[in-house]
């Protein structure tokens, strides 16, 4: 497929014009960033693993009726997606205390929460993606009340699906963040899960040992990030035992 015009380049992905109207090509980079890009590195094979893992999760959501922008994987690093208007929010679902929630509220990491908590951050790297309330979202017109009801419903359905999938392979879904996009079909608008779902955007802990299998490995210098991501992919059956996900055997 001929490479189209670049639309946008972020910290972990590049978006290109798609081959058909209403589509984009999402390319997964090997770049790793943390602390609002204050910590940076290039991790060989990370983009390949995230492409495969995001494909797995998005396909699973599509199959159970949770709409996403994902159409199909094109190759080791690229996937074809519906073009959508991204709502400028990161939607975070927390099942256990960790990260910024633990710091803000003084709750020990790993403490189970009474119920899943949905939080929102305004997407703006310059501001450090600040936490915002539904009052902010309504006041600034980022999303309507109906949108917010739909966003919460989508986020909790993603949480149910992801929690079950990860529990089945011995992994605890601590928390995750997603982005939501608007897709227009004539005068009709619907919301879809967009961007990616991968260990870059989730906290994943081994159920027995508590070993971290997500981007905290990079944030906290806990070892090899690709080894952690490949372990998740192996448990899910995406790549075979003994493969790190970057070789020819990973292409299906």
Helical stretch count? 6
Shape: globular
Radius of gyration: 18 Å
N- to C-terminal separation? 18 Å
Report strand %: 25-35%
Which architecture of the largest domain per CATH? 2-Layer Sandwich
CATH superfamily of the largest domain: ATP-grasp fold, B domain
What does the main sheet amount to?
7 strands, antiparallel
Stretches where pLDDT falls below 50 for ≥5 residues?
248-252
Secondary structure category: alpha+beta
CATH class of the largest domain: Alpha Beta
Helix content: 25-40%
What is the total domain count?
Answer: 2
How many extended strands? 14
CATH topology of the largest domain: D-amino Acid Aminotransferase, Chain A, domain 1
| Assembly form of the protein | single chain
Mean pLDDT: 93
Order of helices and strands: EEEEEHEEEEHEEHHEEEHH
Keywords: ATP-binding, Ligase, Nucleotide-binding, Purine biosynthesis
EC number: 6.3.2.6
Domain SAICAR synthetase/ADE2 N-terminal: 6-235
Family: Belongs to the SAICAR synthetase family.
Written description of the protein model:
This protein is an alpha+beta fold. The protein folds into two domains: 6-84 and 225-250, Phosphorylase Kinase, domain 1; 85-206, D-amino Acid Aminotransferase, Chain A, domain 1 (2-Layer Sandwich). The protein contains six helices and 14 strands. Helix 1 (46-63) packs parallel to helix 6 (225-235). The chain starts with 5 loop residues before the first strand and ends in a 17-residue tail after the last helix. The model is unreliable at 248-252 (pLDDT under 50).
